[in-house]
Known about the structure:
Oligomer: single chain
InterPro entries: Plavaka
Distance between the termini: 11 Å
Number of helices: 9
Helix content: 25-40%
Structural class: alpha+beta
Amino acid sequence: DIEDHEDISFATESYEIGLEDYEEASFDEAFQDLYHPRTVEWPNDAYREFMEIINKYWLSNSAGDAFITFFNKFSNLDISPLPPSTKAGKEFLDNTIVPYMMFKEVPVKTFQNVEYVFYYRSLIKTIKSLLMINSINQSLVLQYEDKKEVRNGVECRIFGEQYHSNWWKREESDLLLGQYLLSLILYSDATTLDHMGKSSGHPMFLSLENIPNHQRNKPESKALIGYLLILKAMDSKTKNSEKF
């Protein structure tokens, strides 16, 4: 019986959003940062372009390290312009403070002497991180569209996007002048965290229905908002209990 073990229920304590979660997270500030980005003092241009490739194509540390080794072998340079490793390059970016990219930590539960922490960033700043991507910013739809096409001589409405729907039109009609409707998509799925598949996690992602389907299906059209906690039992009795 699991009653012999520590209680596994989560506390119902609520966490209020602090004022810092709203700092520099408005639409105006998103556009400002997009067209006047914060200056990152890169070691050199090659370092910057290498890390841009790593992030753009979601390359693993091992793939990046293989490229670094290849480059250093044939470049004939006394000092390599690239980071010593892909991990070091990512740590450089982590140490570059950009408020809307920062994650917060909230202790949620201590179970079997292990403290579980919820890592997340505010919803508003996660949305801003999407708006900072130029391809998304350029394709973002902020108003209802009445899309129609003629099929077999008959004009038909098209509901290919949520902003083509009656719901969008109705909700938009209740907004004040200058306000826009953002439709959020939140989802999570288990994913492996290493090449051997022995470690897994449940990242939560955010996207927007304001982004057209063809753009929303691209990797850059979703933003990481946090990680769901996964409790791990230290013994088989707890792991196999009905309450775990």
